[in-house]
């Protein structure tokens, strides 16, 4: 039976003056809406006790399995306010399917996709006032599942909690989108063969932080990881997928080997590619191939993509002490791709793919 996220009676609402103050400078993940959607899973009763409740602390015992064995997964998607005031989601079912795949890898209960979407929609409906309407503002949604059994034995937990929280966010790039410098990590790995690289779990992000700090120390904004097996093939950035654009119109990204997160933005770009004049290519790419392509001009642009920034042009790749700079272009194809996708998300362009879903 499908879950029904009923709205509990003890609701509270932030006044409009405070919302206006937040919307003036929302940041990213700094403020949270009045409510959250929750559901419980137990081995005996499956998923149950779903509802929309006041935003607040989750009750977790110090012995809860999530603290000791890192059984947790999460998602990231957005709700968008359109010019007519309506609120829409972008491909929520794809996020729900990815959460199921992550759950299977982390031995967590798999929430049905329809229940995932129902939880997201229920929260957005209740907290629709929190969806900002400024330029490239949106409501960032963070669904997650954690093991929540008080037990120190090493096994999959028999109790779990699903929760959706939300945070209004501003434009990722203040003052306009700008290209970023990337540090290529030759020593650290984000994930290895047979590991959790294709799952969206906190451990993958924790594993990227040391190398990200190394990138900052070298004046770069993000880190690019190589395959842990041979240290020669490109995987992805710490939190985004990687693309290059070739001189002959190919849009090339590393194929999904099990080490790479199957990004929703990545998939959307590959789907759109033929309609906007590109040949989409998924295959293994070596770092040396990219560096050679930058040097001989066969690679004309590179970019990273993900939910938060959508598309981020890459200005350079730094390998050890060598900076490999992409050519400056008068008309960025990366930004054209970004604009096409953002226009669909905000309803400024036709959605021929059926990706957008009206909430309210």
Automatic annotation (TrEMBL):
<feature type="modified residue" description="N6-(pyridoxal phosphate)lysine">
    <location>
        <position position="200"/>
    </location>
</feature>
<protein>
    <recommendedName>
        <fullName>Branched-chain-amino-acid aminotransferase</fullName>
        <ecNumber>2.6.1.42</ecNumber>
    </recommendedName>
</protein>
<keyword id="KW-0032">Aminotransferase</keyword>
<comment type="similarity">
    <text>Belongs to the class-IV pyridoxal-phosphate-dependent aminotransferase family.</text>
</comment>
<dbReference type="InterPro" id="IPR033939">
    <property type="entry name" value="BCAT_family"/>
</dbReference>
<dbReference type="GO" id="GO:0009098">
    <property type="term" value="P:L-leucine biosynthetic process"/>
</dbReference>
<dbReference type="GO" id="GO:0052654">
    <property type="term" value="F:L-leucine-2-oxoglutarate transaminase activity"/>
</dbReference>
<dbReference type="GO" id="GO:0052656">
    <property type="term" value="F:L-isoleucine-2-oxoglutarate transaminase activity"/>
</dbReference>
<dbReference type="InterPro" id="IPR036038">
    <property type="entry name" value="Aminotransferase-like"/>
</dbReference>
<comment type="pathway">
    <text>Amino-acid biosynthesis; L-leucine biosynthesis; L-leucine from 3-methyl-2-oxobutanoate: step 4/4.</text>
</comment>
<dbReference type="InterPro" id="IPR043131">
    <property type="entry name" value="BCAT-like_N"/>
</dbReference>
<keyword id="KW-0100">Branched-chain amino acid biosynthesis</keyword>
<dbReference type="Pfam" id="PF01063">
    <property type="entry name" value="Aminotran_4"/>
</dbReference>
<dbReference type="GO" id="GO:0009097">
    <property type="term" value="P:isoleucine biosynthetic process"/>
</dbReference>
<keyword id="KW-0808">Transferase</keyword>
<keyword id="KW-0028">Amino-acid biosynthesis</keyword>
<dbReference type="GO" id="GO:0052655">
    <property type="term" value="F:L-valine-2-oxoglutarate transaminase activity"/>
</dbReference>
<dbReference type="InterPro" id="IPR005786">
    <property type="entry name" value="B_amino_transII"/>
</dbReference>
<comment type="pathway">
    <text>Amino-acid biosynthesis; L-valine biosynthesis; L-valine from pyruvate: step 4/4.</text>
</comment>
<keyword id="KW-0663">Pyridoxal phosphate</keyword>
<dbReference type="InterPro" id="IPR001544">
    <property type="entry name" value="Aminotrans_IV"/>
</dbReference>
<dbReference type="InterPro" id="IPR018300">
    <property type="entry name" value="Aminotrans_IV_CS"/>
</dbReference>
<dbReference type="GO" id="GO:0009099">
    <property type="term" value="P:L-valine biosynthetic process"/>
</dbReference>
<dbReference type="InterPro" id="IPR043132">
    <property type="entry name" value="BCAT-like_C"/>
</dbReference>
């Amino acid at each position: 039976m499908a879950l029904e996220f009923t709205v509990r009676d003890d609701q509270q609402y932030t006044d409009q003056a405070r919302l206006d103050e937040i919307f003036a400078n929302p940041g990213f993940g700094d403020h949270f809406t009045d409510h959250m959607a929750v559901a419980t899973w137990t081995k005996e009763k499956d998923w149950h006790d779903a509802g929309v409740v006041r935003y607040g602390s989750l009750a977790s015992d110090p012995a809860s399995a999530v603290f000791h064995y890192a059984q947790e997964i999460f998602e990231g998607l957005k709700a968008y306010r359109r010019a007519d005031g309506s609120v829409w989601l972008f491909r929520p079912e794809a996020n729900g399917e990815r959460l199921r795949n992550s759950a299977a890898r982390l031995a967590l209960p798999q929430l049905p996709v329809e229940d995932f979407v129902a939880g997201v929609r229920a929260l957005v409906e209740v907290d629709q006032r929190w969806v900002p309407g400024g330029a490239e503002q949106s409501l960032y949604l963070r669904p997650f599942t954690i093991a929540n059994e008080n037990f120190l034995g090493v096994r999959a937990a028999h109790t779990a909690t699903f929760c959706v929280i939300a945070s209004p966010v501003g434009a990722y790039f203040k003052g306009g989108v700008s290209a970023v410098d990337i540090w290529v990590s030759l020593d650290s790995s984000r994930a290895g063969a047979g590991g959790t690289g294709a799952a969206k779990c906190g451990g993958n992000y924790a594993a990227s932080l040391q190398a990200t700090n190394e990138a900052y120390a070298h004046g770069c904004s993000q880190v690019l990881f190589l395959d842990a097996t041979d240290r020669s093939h490109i995987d992805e950035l710490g939190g985004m997928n990687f693309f290059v654009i070739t001189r002959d119109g190919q849009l090339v990204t590393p194929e999904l080997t099990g080490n790479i997160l199957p990004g929703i933005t990545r998939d959307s770009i590959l789907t759109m590619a033929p309609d906007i004049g590109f040949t989409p290519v998924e295959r293994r790419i070596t770092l040396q191939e990219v560096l050679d392509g930058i040097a001989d001009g066969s690679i004309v642009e590179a970019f990273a993509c993900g939910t938060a920034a959508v598309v981020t042009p890459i200005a350079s790749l730094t390998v050890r002490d060598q900076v490999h700079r992409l050519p400056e272009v008068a008309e960025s194809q990366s930004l054209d791709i970004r604009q096409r996708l953002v226009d669909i998300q905000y309803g400024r362009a036709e959605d021929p793919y059926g990706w957008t879903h009206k909430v309210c």
